[in-house]
Design goal:
This protein is an alpha/beta fold. It is built from ten helices and 15 strands. The protein binds NADP nicotinamide-adenine-dinucleotide phosphate.
Length: 325
């Protein structure tokens, strides 16, 4: 079968389209014939070797397609059924992939009308947005929210979802005025560049600070938001796109009366699969009913390396989805 593959870590040039053997489902697993597959920032991080992965590797951790086969012990699904899935061991940028039954959701009932292009583009980030705002940030109506990396695929969803959950103020921050304007044009109340935050946050929040800061960026912006939280505010760390962390003393959390929280989709799945499944289903329902519009660009097999280039070049604004068949 056809798959995007890399045999060594490195830049986007290590990606190739290759013939690879069909994977077989094991116990509790589902084989899926993929129609659409998301290209995700996590694919970039693993491809460049930030985290170890056995090689050769096939990227892709979100797909839509139809069930091709069931491993031992799988019930409640049937061959030919349309599904959306998170193959958490990657492999989704391929004609067939294996996913766990917990993260395979039938496109039926409230999800019956969901376009597989949107389903594949939403799966990972919509589940993450729900888990971040509801689970980690414990968002409440009237909260004032700041999202770093607001013009990225996840960032755009976070702003829209915060609004749907009743936030009173939703501010998006980005690296350039163009990206900040993109966030403002896509539902944020204000779009700011990171360097403006310290100066403008007090005026935007009546001098109180933000109740929630969502931070998938790390690096300098993570430094720049120190001191911008309201009393008992929550700084939620969900990524490290800049590939640079900061040092924070635990005593500072006490002195400043704030909460440091986190959300990691794979980590939640490993320890609370039921919770991850509920977050995935809620995120997909919100996309299906139009609460969470998604900005998707469909690409072909020859477009995957360029999508990686744009993701790591901070040039993406929305979601790339590979049309597999
Ligand atoms: N915790 C989880 O379970 C989970 C799940 C999904 C995604 N994530 C994380 O969320 C982040 C966003 O994912 P995404 O799908 O929205 O990707 P994306 O569309 O490429 O967005 C990446 C964002 O990070 C910002 N960024 C800052 N420094 C960067 C750098 N050095 N290189 C590239 N981008 C940089 C970019 O905005 P500016 O250029 O404006 O700063 C951009 O908005 C990633 O870090 C990803 O790992 C975490």
């Amino acid at each position: 079968m056809r798959a995007v593959r890399y045999t060594r870590t490195g830049g986007p040039e290590v990606l190739e389209v290759a013939e690879v053997p069909f994977p077989q489902p094991g116990e509790g697993e589902v084989a899926i014939d993929v129609s659409h597959a998301g290209v995700h920032f996590a694919d970039v991080m693993f491809r460049r070797g930030q985290f170890p992965l056995p090689l050769p590797a096939v990227p892709g951790l979100e797909v839509a397609g139809t069930v091709a086969g069931l491993g031992p012990g799988v019930t409640g699904l049937r061959v030919g059924q349309p599904v959306v899935a998170l193959p958490m061991g990657f492999g989704g940028n391929a004609e067939r992939v294996i996913a766990g039954v917990t993260t395979t959701v039938p496109l039926e009932g409230e999800l019956a009308g969901l376009d597989p292009l949107l389903a594949a583009g939403a799966a990972c980030n919509a589940a993450t947005a729900v888990g971040t705002l509801r689970g980690a940030a414990r968002i409440a109506a009237g909260d004032r929210i700041l999202v770093l990396g607001a013009s990225g695929g996840l960032g755009l969803l976070l702003g829209r979802l915060a609004r749907a959950y009743g936030a009173a103020l939703v501010v998006g921050a980005a690296s350039t005025p163009q990206r900040a304007a993109r966030a403002a044009g896509a539902g944020y109340d204000r779009g700011l560049v990171y360097g403006e935050l310290a100066g403008l946050a007090p005026g935007l929040t009546d001098g109180q600070g933000f109740d929630v800061i969502v931070d998938a960026v790390g690096g300098e912006p993570r430094e720049q938001v120190r001191g911008l939280l309201a009393v008992l505010g929550r700084h939620v760390v969900i990524g490290n796109a800049a590939d640079r962390d900061i040092t924070l003393d635990a005593n500072q959390v006490w002195y400043d009366s704030f909460t440091l929280a986190g959300y990691n989709l794979g980590g939640v799945l490993a320890r609370r699969p039921d919770l991850l499944r509920a977050q995935l289903e809620e995120g997909l329902r919100l996309v299906a009913d139009g609460t969470l519009p998604l900005d998707v660009e469909e690409i072909g097999w020859d477009g995957v390396a360029e999508a990686h280039r744009r993701l790591e070049g901070r040039a993406a604004s929305g979601k790339y989805v590979l049309r597999v068949r």
